[in-house]
Amino acid sequence: MPEIRTFRWRAIVPFALFLVLVVAGWLVFADRLGRLAVERGGTALLGARVEVRSLHIALTRGNVTVSGLVAASPFDSLKNLMEADQLVAQIDVAPLFEKKVAIDRLAATGLRFGTKRATSGFVPSHGESATTQIMANVRSWAAQPALQVPLLQLATGALSIDSLDPRKLQTVQAAESLTAHADSSGRAWAAQLGTLNVQATADSAVAFAQRLQVAKPTDLALLRDARRTIDRVKQTRDRVVSLERDVQAGAGSLDQGLAALNAARQRDYAFAKSLVRLPPIDASAIAWVLFGPEAVAKFQRALYYTQLAREYMPPGLKPHAEPAAARRRGVSVQFPREHALPGFLLRDADVSLLLGADSAVRPYSGRLRGLTSSPALYGRPTTFELRAPTLSADAVFDHVHDTPRDAVGGTIQNVAIPDIHLPGLPIRVTPGKGDLTLGFSLYGDSLRGRWQVLAPRAAWQRDSGGPGGPAADLLWQVVSRIDHLDLTAELSGTLSQPQLHVRSNLDAAVADGLRAAIGDKVAAAEVTVRARVDRFADSSAAPVRARVTQVKTQGAAQVAEARRVIEAAQQRLEQQLKKVTGGIFH
Amino acid sequence: MLVLKLLQSLVKALHSEGTPGQVAAGIALGSILGFTPLFSLHNLLVVALIFLFNVSLPGAALGWAIATPLGFALDPAFDALGRWLLLGIPALTPLWTALANAPVIPLTNFNNSVVLGSLVTSLVLFTPIYVGSRWGVRRYRETLGERVKNSGLYRAITASKLFGIYRLFRPSA
User: Fold this and answer.
1) Complex ipTM
2) Is residue B70 in a domain?
3) What values do phi and psi take at B36, rounded to 5?
4) Considering the entire predicted model, what is its pTM?
5) How far apart (Å, rounded) are the C-alpha atoms in residues A303 and A142?
6) Torsions phi, psi of B17, nearest 5?
7) A10 vs chain B: nearest CA distance in angstroms?
8) Quick check: is A7 in a domain?
């Protein structure tokens, strides 16, 4: 049998050629592959299309240059979140062999925000991707009732009042509950009185008193029995007194229930008023109706980007899984180790921004530090700061500890502020140049946000299309005379229970205008709904009042009668005993 | 087309000049390529083994051709196994952490659940596949081999250009 050689020596040259081809392929296609990786990775990370005009990798110089980076907005299909003319990154080559990217310095030039784009920047949603989930969560957050803003509508002709369901009235529910309470109290008092056997005890005492009438002072056994009978009568009396106190307390509780009916009725008035399709005419609600959606949209975006930061910069050092695209579904698990480099680290970045309208773009420079995929390894929060005479912005993403603390904020003065459309109305305000402030923080799940617009020379525009009607006419009459805008929206609470307060200089003016126009209708509607509430509430409350009175009276009378009977029996027995013993026993 | 290639691989492997052991080793190594995601760094090592060791190239092609669809079908199982190994066994976490922070090894994507699950599965199956294939090839050559070798189909396949390339790397005795 011939000897079988283990190695195929003649394959070494072809295999070496194969390796050379692989290396040559890398050299030829590295830039293209890098560009695809940035585009695909960026798109997956942001949840909107990321495009790169060109990317050049010069590993010998440890240098990667990205030109023409465009990141679309996840919220507006025809707008970009950001454009950058060029990003030049100085990278550490050694960590690449650990599949880690460590950028010592990044120079970003020509950054512009909110630019327009010709094609949609949205990407098809993938049900399980992190960005899809975050977007769904943020939309769900913004859809909470606490952040829903009613459209401004004015009633025309007869006022529309939604059907008032009596089952939803708190007075009716409280009345039913109080009736049950009264019935159970009455039954309980009767049962307790029954267990005391007051009449039987009293009869027994009276019978014993009659026996004592013929007793002699020397009949000691009879006298002892008499003493015991008196003790039993006293115990029964004490229990009756205790029950009497219970009845009084129960009656007090029923009285409180009756008082609660009145409070419930006040709440029902408010509930019924909310069913009347009328705009709010109190000043505090006007800004909420007019600018609430815009404020919610601003905070919604801030929350989205904050949640993205939490997703891709998770706190702690525990292994965590991320969806991966290896052939099929799967997860790539990250295993951070203390004192080792994070998977991604951008130590320091000089950022050159271009801000302002197209005709008056001004350059600004900022600094970004410590952007990393594993903040706990890096040990310091990610910070961004930008200072200029008319502009300041700061951001801190502190995910070093278990409870993440994120805060972003910025103020820009004398900037062209985009138009704000009033929801559901063909009216928009063109604030012109003014000051803008946006602050947003998320500590754990505690929210705090502030959006402020100060526009000293605001103008109002009425669009030809869109719904018109009395609301638009009335509002236009009021706002078209107002030449400035001072708007503040403040967000507080938690992710699950947010609270939004909006106020503006329009509030009082619009409220006065509305009140003048429809105040009489509002008053009439309120009278109507109060009457309806009263009708339903009275039909429920009157029987329960009668029932409560009956139960209280009946209970008190039964207990009082029992007490009278038992005390009379006790008195008679004691007097008879005293008479027999000549006052020795009493 | 896929069926034709599979048939071609099958015929070439079974009638190659390698021993049943060489064909079986090729099939077992090729199955690793098929079971695991192709563009993984460890597969470069597998390709090197196939080229440099005197195993049957048609055998490797056959193993790859058979294992690839199986691998795709078994991806959910590989994913589950990988997740269990990566996340379900705390005692292994220090090992994964050390590997994840070592040079080069992270480039293998071992921390991906499908990659790890399929690689572990293919390594576990390596010996059974090798032993089973060796027995199968031997039995085939003892029973059907000669008749197939004289058939028109065999002549058509061996006349193809690919067969000429194969001869360059055929296992040598």
Assistant:
1) 0.74
2) yes
3) -95, 155
4) 0.64
5) 10
6) -85, 0
7) 8
8) no
